[in-house]
Amino acid sequence: MPIYKIHHITQYEYDRPVRESINEIKIYPYSCPSQETLMHDVEITGNPKVEVFTDYWGNRNGSFSVLQAHRQLTIESRLVIRTTQGNQLNINFHSDFNELQAEVNRDIRLLELTEKDPVLSGDEIREIVERARSGARSVASVTEYFSEYIYKHFRYIKGITSVETTVEEILEQKGGVCQDFAHLMLQLLRATGIPARYVSGYICPNKNGMRGEGATHAWVEAWIPGHGWAGIDPTNNKWVTNTHIKLSVGRHFRDCSPVKGTFKGPARQKLSVFVSVGYEDGHTFEEINNVNLELQNANLPEEELIEGFAQQQQ
Known about the structure:
By secondary structure, the chain is an alpha+beta fold. It has two domains: 3-83 and 258-310, Immunoglobulin-like (Sandwich); 97-255, C8orf32 fold (Roll), CATH 3.10.620.30. The protein has helices at residues 97-105, 108-112, 122-133, 139-153, 167-173, 178-191; strands at residues 3-25, 35-44, 51-54, 60-66, 70-83, 155-156, 175-176, 196-203, 216-224, 228-233, 238-239, 244-250, 259-264, 269-278, 284-293, 306-310. The strands form three sheets. Strands 1, 2, 3, 4, 5, 13, 14, 15 and 16 form a nine-stranded antiparallel beta sheet that branches. Strands 11-10-9-8-12 form a five-stranded antiparallel beta sheet, covered by helices on one side. It has a two-stranded parallel sheet with strand order 6-7. Strand 3 (51-54) and strand 4 (60-66) form a beta hairpin. Helix 3 (122-133) packs across helix 6 and helix 4 (139-153) packs antiparallel against helix 6. The protein is globular and about 60 Å long. 38% of the residues are buried. The model is unreliable at 295-305 (pLDDT under 50).
C-alpha cells in the first residue's frame, strides 16, 4: 500500500489589484475505500474562512471569498495519502450489456450518467462505437477498446486545448491532454449505454513512463456490472490502480475543476500550477505549468467587469 506526499500550489497573479474574488476548490481527497488520507493541510492567501460541504456527486468542496483588493491569490495543499488497493484490478470481463441495463434501470444516478451530450461529430462517434460493439464484447472489453482507441489515435500534446475545448475540436485535431481524452471517453461510453463519470486527481507513476505526472490529472470511471465503478485512464491506456489519487467525480470537468472562481477588476491574470509528488523511495517529481489567461471583457466598466477562471488538467 504505497504512500504519496503531494504538494499542490495554485497561484493567480494580476497585473493590477482585483477585488471580491469568490472561489470554489475541490482539492480534498475523495472519500472511498481505495485511498486513505493521512494528513491534509490547505493554506490560502489572507487565511479566509473556508466553508466545506459535500456536493451532489459526493465531493468535498471548499468555498471562500477574498473581498479586499489583492494582486495575488495562492492556494496551497499539502497531502499525505495511502492507496489501499493493489496494482491489479479484478474486472469482470464476462458481464454483458443485458446485466448492465438491468443495473442501470434500478439506479437513477447511473441512468443520469448514461446521458450523452449532443455533438456535431455524431457520425464519427457512432462509427467508433459500432467497431467497439462488433462481436460478442463484454462491457469491460468495450471500455478497454475505447481507451486503446484514444491512446493509439490521439496525440498527447500540451498547449493546444483549453477548458473550453469541445469533443468536436478534439476529434478534429486528434490531440490534447488528459482532460480532453477523458471527455472523449465519456462521450464514447455513454453513446454505448455505459454509465461513466469524469474523475479529477493526481497520477503518481514514479518514473514508469506514464503521461500526466506533475499536474492534476483526469481519467474516467465506467460502471461494470458485478463490479461497480472501475477507473480507466485513456491518456495512458490502463485501468486505474494504486498510482492514481482521486479528488472529485462528476459528469464533466465543470463538476470537478480543482480551482475555479470569479473576481472584479480589469486585470490580466497569470496562472501558475506547481505539483510535487514524493514517493516512499525518496524520489520526488516536481513540475510547474504556467498559463496566461486572457481578459475576456476588457471593454466593460471596472465596476461591471467580472472575470472567471478555472484550472485545466494536464
